[in-house]
D-3-phosphoglycerate dehydrogenase (Ornithinibacillus xuwenensis), 528 residues
Amino acid sequence: MAFRILITESISNEGIQRLQETPNVIVELRSNLDFKDLTAIIHQFDALIVRSQTQVTREIIEPATNLKIIGRAGVGVDNIDLDAATENGILVVNAPNGNTNSAAEHTMAMLMALSRNIPQAYHALKQNKWDRKQYIGVELKDKTLGIIGLGRIGAEVAYRARGQRMNVIAYDPFLTKEKASKMGIEYGSIQAVLQSADFITVHTPLLKETKHLLNRDAFERMKPGVQIINCARGGIIDEDALYEAIISKKVVGAALDVLEEEPFLQHKLLELPEVIATPHLGASTIEAQENVAVDVCQDILRYIHGGVVRNPVNLPSLDKEFYRKIEPYFHLGEKLGEFLIYLADESPEEITISYAGDITSYELSPLSRKIIKGILKRHLGTHVNEINALYLANRKDIQIHESKTSTKKGFSNLITVELKTKSTKRNVSGTLLNGLGARIVKIDHFSVDVTPKGHIIVIHHTDQPGVIGKMGSLLANHDINIATMQVDRSDIGGDAIMMLKVDKHVEEVVLNKLMMLEDIHYVRAIDL
Ligand SMILES: NC(=O)c1ccc[n+]([C@@H]2O[C@H](COP(=O)([O-])OP(=O)(O)OC[C@H]3O[C@@H](n4cnc5c(N)ncnc54)[C@H](O)[C@@H]3O)[C@@H](O)[C@H]2O)c1
Ligand SMILES: O=C(O)CC[C@@H](O)C(=O)O
């Protein structure tokens, strides 16, 4: 079946072409859709690509029954409801690096235009006014630029501002004094930045914690005559507070590329002569648009071809080398989960995943997600995937524990998954045998050696002469061929387990007959 991709905003052809050239991929460009149209057609698509204007809300995501991936051609994902995407198992990818340079350059352009009143003076000239007194500016040299948020763009702005011979003071929760000093800038608390800067530029994402970061209280703490730049996100600045601070002359200039509601026209801030603005142009360069379109489209193609996406937003990111090494364990882990859930008679309450041996040198959370997916998918079906596995487990009040030890437990690598229900605990262990692939090597306290693949019958019985024979005859009577058989017991005449690999699915009616045989405690037919 074709993979259908909807693109709702203008993105560079460099990216679109790569999608269009891929066999079995259908691309639809629909930049004129309103919210209602988008809600009505979204179920037809496997992927959606947006920039910053399309609001991908829960109301869009919930009817998107076929949607698997959302690509954001840019950095900020505040226009995408990530919780709703995660809950619905939809992967979100962005293009975080492609527009860094352009956004940093735009910030510098705004800073310079602001300090020299360039837009205002140009506007006056266009109205035949030759006014040199009105537009006296200030130099940047030796002024202090306060940067709030020293990530990709903030750091690039810092380097450029140093080039203008400005002093730079920055606050970012991840910034250390050492790092700041290596960059030739000063490390400060947010208060220190507010109090000492002549110009303040914000470069954080828009989050709950950064919403109205520059509010009345923040403006009060600033130096009189401060100027403000926002090329990050509307909403980081409280617009009413900024308006008041300009009216009171505390703030003498503001350069805004973004406002809380976009597109913004006839906003009260735009009426103030101290405010200059651009219509969200930070990433609007040929280079940035090519970069982000190519990055996001390549990630979508990686997804289609089953590869590792580079810029996942709602999944841990995996590097290629790491993925190559851990991928065989993904298969084993998911199969262990699928296997184990068949042994549980009640709903799971706790899942404990224990890793032992060499595998513990890897970051294991992606593998744990696969195992949980394997456990949940028997009851939740294809709806569960590695993106929403943890969320769904959480919603079902299943506690997840993970432990690891580098000490080898009989195998160079061992994964043990334990499932606790109200009345029982069952566990299964698996390993990757060098050159031989995945094996289930333990079920509860019994040792086995079974490939986690195909049709398996697990029989728990009492170790008595004749049990195996009766099983074999019953299966033969139903034309079920036994391919391999494994038996283990706790002691002579005690608890025993039998694992039969058979050539076809075993019907319920046969299982019931097996259950009726003497000395049988339980029987499960597992299709992996
Ligand atoms: N105007 C545009 O067209 C345009 C273009 C690109 C990016 N952006 C926006 O620019 C912003 C920065 O992008 P980026 O690529 O540098 O992101 P980034 O993730 O690399 O950097 C963001 C930084 O903000 C810091 N931060 C988070 N909370 C903070 C807080 N409370 N106080 C101080 N720092 C905090 C983070 O630690 C991080 O270092 C984003 O909002 C992005 O959407 C806008
Ligand atoms: O799509 C755009 O041009 C805006 C992109 C920018 O805001 C971003 O966060 O990457």
Q: What stands out?
A: The longest strand covers residues 425-433. Residues 320-343 form the longest helix (24 residues). The radius of gyration is 31 Å. Residues 383 and 517 are 38 Å apart (CA to CA).
